[in-house]
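User: Structure tokens for both sequences below?

Assistant:
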Amino acid sequence: MEGPTKIGILTLQKQIVSYGAALQSYATWKFLKSRGYDVEIIDLSMITRFRFRLSERYKAPQQSLRKNIVHGLICDYFRHPLRVYRFGMFNRLVKYSKLYRQVDEIYANPPQYDVYITGSDQSWNPILVHNIEPYLLSFVGKDKKKISYAASIGLNDIPSEFKHLYVETLPEYKHISVRETRAKEIVEGIIGSENVSVVLDPTMLLSKEQYLEIAKPYHKKNYLLVYLLGNDIGSLRFASGIAKKNNLDLVVIGSKINGIEAVFEPNAGPREWLGLIENASYVLTNSFHGTVFSLLFGKSFNTLISDESKVSRIYTLLNDFGLMKNIIRDLNVVYDISEYQYNIEEFNNKLETFRNKSQSWLIDSIEN
């Protein structure tokens, strides 16, 4: 008697101290496991992914990206060991394959599954992910089923020097879905087909109730929560003004910044992060996943936009739900948060429709 279908997912996952990466990986695994599949995350070492050799190709952006990576890897491990520990404990909720420390190892002895999935987050971003080839499933034999679920490129286009890698590998995928409209356009241009679907981020495959099962409650009340990718002083002063205008305390996920009167939470793991959002009165974020979970938990929120070239995934998300008005660009106007309330029941109805469609796409792609 045959057992359940074995599935391996390759995505940005446990070795990155990132709430979005951890939760989207968990959500994909959790959803497929709940449907009876034998599923695990392929554990490809982060050391393999980030070689800090971007200067060979990109002189200008290399410094800021490398700084972010080094800060994330070194500072998190040495300045915030409790946060790293909490991420490690969270990752124990998910089943992983054996660890592949080097790219050569996964090509020499690839894991064996019935279906291989390129997962979400920016798995197809060649600027972020050095050694992009494994994330295009080039280590998988042509006789195996390859699909992508909500893969993200994270760029307005693929740089020309990487494009041949996508041309060589993407036509071997049986089914392809991406997370944003721009990625659909890029991939369809490469494969010469219009059969690329745009689906929900994996985190939206699960319900609010499923996240509350793993969230760590945060007991403070009546606060404005700030979650920014890069806590700059200007954005925090803006948030402080909003908090004061709306009679809310200020809670910031991240390290303390002098000159800002707030409760700083530098050690939150994914479960604590969920609790902080779930209990907030209002959320201010510039993060895609900060926006996603504000919506899932029915929070009043605004999403700050500063770099128009990196927000296609946020635009796709908010446009789909008719919430483009929640984007903020002007930090000079302190506003009343009641201006940005939305019909939560209407949102949940739309979400249920999109969720059912995305879940069906994923299951149908595995089975057919």
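Moving on to the next sequence.
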Amino acid sequence: MTTKTPTTTTSSENTMTTTTPTTTTSSENTMTTTTPTTTTSSENTMTTTTPTTTTSSENTMTTTTPTTTTSSENTMTTTTPTTTTSSENTMTQTTPTTTTSSENTMTTTTPTTTTSSENTMTTNNAHDNNFV
């Protein structure tokens, strides 16, 4: 089990935070939890987060809670959440970006991609649910 809680930055202006969290490769029983960057700033904030990539042959559960950004102006948040490849018993849950800002906010989210041969459930709060 790998748990990584990366950078927390608080600044009044001109903050850029880039976080590339955990990559785990295992043959069985892998659980990876990543809680990436939280940034609070009053202006000119750009946060880019590329969370967990997990490759495993069985019993993989990946939970990613990407970037939360709160800013008063000029906020751009880009999140590319979890990609999981597994042969069986894969469950991927992604709760993408939440952005609160008073003006000039652009949020781009490219949520979960899951490739599996059996028993795959993908839950994504930003898009429709797909079951294979």
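User: Anything stand out in the second?

Assistant: The two ends are 26 Å apart (CA to CA).
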